[in-house]
Amino acid sequence: MPRFKIYNYDQNAMVVINYQDLLQPDTFEHSVHLRATDRLQQALAGCSSG
Q1: DSSP per residue over the chain, as a string?
Q2: Separation of alpha carbons 4 and 10, rounded Å
Q3: Residue 49: band (very low, low, confident or very high) from pLDDT cuts 50, 70, 90
Q4: Distance (Å, rounded) from C-alpha 17 to C-alpha 15?
Q5: pLDDT tens digits for 3-44?
Q6: C-alpha count within 13 angstroms, C-beta hemisphere, residue 4
């Protein structure tokens, strides 16, 4: 039977990460982001025009 650590409810931490700031131009991740946002905008524009 696995033994798990007891969870401590007194600990809390929140880290704010802005992924837009982490994207560097001319990288694969940046290209995927641009492609995904373009496709999303096209899909949303197609839905609203009909």
Answers
A1: ---PPPP-TT--------HHHH--TTSHHHHHHHHHHHHHHHHHHHHHH-
A2: 17
A3: low
A4: 6
A5: 888 887 887 778 888 888 888 999 999 999 999 999 999 999
A6: 3
Total number of residues shown for the chain: 50
| Structure token pair of residue 4 | 């798990």
Residue with tokens 């401590």: 8
Residue 2 confidence (pLDDT): 82
Q: Which residues contact 24 (CB under 8 A, 6 or more apart)?
A: 30
Tokens of 7: 């969870």
